[in-house]
Write a structure and sequence with these properties.
With 377 residues, the chain is α/β, with parallel strands linked by helices. The protein has two domains: 176 residues, Rossmann fold (3-Layer(aba) Sandwich), CATH 3.40.50.2000; 164 residues, Glycogen Phosphorylase B (Rossmann fold). Helices cover 41% and strands 14% of the residues. It has 16 helices and twelve strands. The strands form three sheets. The chain has a six-stranded parallel sheet, sandwiched between helices.
């Protein structure tokens, strides 16, 4: 079960997990349930037995008021659909904690479900999602130590940290930035206050004009049904006089060409990221990431070796880091090579597959009770 339909980070992680399950069980009947059609369907098709589009009861922050009122009437039917699928399955993999109908129904068929935690919620939302996981009785895959710490589940809950495994390119980029041309910087991901596109624009705007001209920034992604946010970001770029240096581009399902173009990839997140898939993908291409010290991002990047880690909370730390990069390219010439090595060692597809396989097999053992012993002769 997956709550999305695009091909952003959590969507691609879901595709890779499904591919891993297909590799472990090549003859299995694997049904994928999605809430609507989208780019992810084509990516899943090689590994799915079938893709089913049907309503899911998804906890989204902006829809909580509606879920608690009008959409509450849909919950009984959603629970019934979920229960029937769980009852008919040996294993139910729930990608993210917000697919509430399946987590609620999992309690009725214990031991068959596995939930993959990609979120770092706070306050009341954290309490709700933690309670859902505990109620479900599902096994848990955390995508980082940060998510594991935040959820703080009891020791008896079957759980494991498995870093997202990325199918990287066969060869990394050749590092060729020497300061003789503009620094090519890429920011890839959904436009939101969490991701920090506005802070990055402010950081660039705060640099001296001569330094700004030595940076070319591409911000790629959409705002998920929030056109007003996209327009506001475009207006901020124009208002800061950055239109010559910053381009705002729509989501692309395959970012490979963007990673090949970039000298540096940035994740200037202002609220906790559970891990930081874009940073990992950048490292797979041998591109050093510039990230904030928040959530799981410090688990990905080694500051001063594979990239840069700066404090969140405003544009100045980002601006200072950009100024250092431009002033002394030789100081980080080896970052890309080290980033690729770290990707291969910690975040490769094979290392993630081992962890997912362990949790899948453990869940299947719980869902299939051992046969009763034969009576003694």
């Amino acid at each position: 079960m997956h709550q999305g339909f695009e091909l952003y980070g959590s969507d691609r992680c879901f595709v890779e997990t499904v591919r891993t399950i297909r590799t472990i069980h090549p003859t299995a009947q694997i049904d994928i349930v999605l809430p609507r059609e989208g780019p992810i369907v084509a990516a899943l098709s090689p590994f799915a037995s079938r893709v089913v589009i049907e309503p899911l009861w998804i906890l989204r922050r902006k829809n909580l008021a509606r879920l608690a009122t009008r959409d509450l009437l849909r919950l009984p039917a959603a629970l019934l659909r979920a229960f029937r699928r769980i009852r008919a399955s040996d294993l139910v993999y729930i990608n993210t904690t917000v697919v509430a109908d399946y987590l609620l129904a999992a309690r009725l068929r214990p031991g068959r479900s596995l939930v993959h935690v990609h979120e770092l919620p706070e306050g009341a939302v954290l309490k709700l999602l933690r309670a859902l996981i505990r109620w479900s009785g599902a096994g848990v895959v955390f995508n980082s130590r940060a998510t594991e710490r935040v959820f703080a589940l009891p020791a008896h809950v079957p759980a494991r940290v498995v870093y997202n495994g990325i199918a990287g390119p066969a060869e990394a980029n050749r590092a060729d930035y020497d300061g003789s041309r503009p620094l090519r910087m890429l920011m890839l991901g959904r436009i939101s206050g969490i991701k920090g596109q506005d802070v990055l624009v402010e950081a660039l705007a705060s640099l001296p004009e001569a330094m700004r001209r030595r940076i070319e920034l591409r911000i790629v992604g959409g705002a998920f049904e929030d056109e007003a946010r996209e327009r506001a970001l475009a207006a901020r770029i124009a208002g800061a006089g950055l239109s010559e240096h910053v381009s705002l581009e729509p989501f692309v399902p395959d970012p490979a060409a963007l990673y090949r173009w970039a000298d540096v990839v940035t994740m200037p997140s202002q609220k906790p990221e559970s891990l930081g898939r874009v940073a990992i993908e950048a490292m797979a291409y041998g591109v050093p990431p510039l990230v904030t010290a928040i959530g799981g991002l410090p688990e990905v990047v080694e500051d001063g070796r594979t990239g840069w880690i700066v404090p969140p909370g405003g544009p100045k730390p980002l601006a200072d880091a950009l100024a250092r990069m431009i002033a002394d390219p030789a100081a980080w010439r080896d970052f890309g090579r080290a980033a690729r090595e770290r990707y291969e060692r910690v975040f490769s597809e094979a290392s993630a597959a081992d962890g997912i396989e362990t949790m899948v097999r453990a869940t299947l053992r719980r869902s299939r009770p051992a046969p009763a012993a034969r009576p003694a002769a």
